[in-house]
Structure prediction request, 238 residues.
Amino acid sequence: MIFNKMKNYKVDNRLKHIAFIMDGNGRWAKARSLPRNVGHKYGAKAFEETVKNCHEFGIKIVTVYAFSTENWSRPKNEIEAIMELLDTYIERAYEQKDIRYVFVGDKSVLSEDLRNKMISLEKATDKYDNILNIAFNYGGRAEIVNACNTLISSGASSVSEEDISSHLYTSHCSDPDLIVRTANEQRISNFLLWQCAYSEFYFTNILWPDFDKKELYKAIQSYYKRKRRFGGLIKGEE
Ligand code: IPE
Ligand code: IPE
Ligand code: MG
Prediction:
């Protein structure tokens, strides 16, 4: 039944931007007595599928949390495996013809080779309208501090909300309408702290490598049941 409903399904303009905290790769691997890095490999596959599925459903902006500023505390071999997965993904990304890639986060501490590949991909795709933000070495607090410091060094003595928004890594797109977190965790883990002010949240027990089109569809249906008030009242409910 759900498969029939999903066929040719399209979102409307109430859902422009969806963001994912892709969590649970390690637990997925552990449940199969596999090394954590295998979980990341299957997580990368789920990520590619999800991007494709969002695109099919007509969602214009997708953001994924791939590596946080706190993830540097993981074992060296796990960090290297994640960097390698990103490297391989970037090579294949050129095959996708209609997505604008934006890496949100601090590139400056990454290897020169990876940084150059990220920048080249961003430049090569900046003409496309559908946006895929990949949050890599991303931290929400660092992002806000960085925006403030940029404003201070350009001579600002006070700042507005608009000033901060326009100096975040995500200044090219609207705030997320829906944030999905997998793996049974109900926290934000330093993701899009400023931008999530009025986002809807969807939490699921599904581990990220198992997150498929059906799960995405379920998250979207849950979103459409929400009443977004933005602090106001909804017509007819006063
Ligand atoms: C998410 O999966 C991927 C990253 C944080 C890079 P985890 O690696 O956090 O998986 P769990 O939470 O240990 O299961
Ligand atoms: C959040 O997941 C970061 C990413 C998905 C990249 P974590 O697994 O790092 O978050 P915590 O440590 O459980 O809060
Ligand atoms: Mg985790």
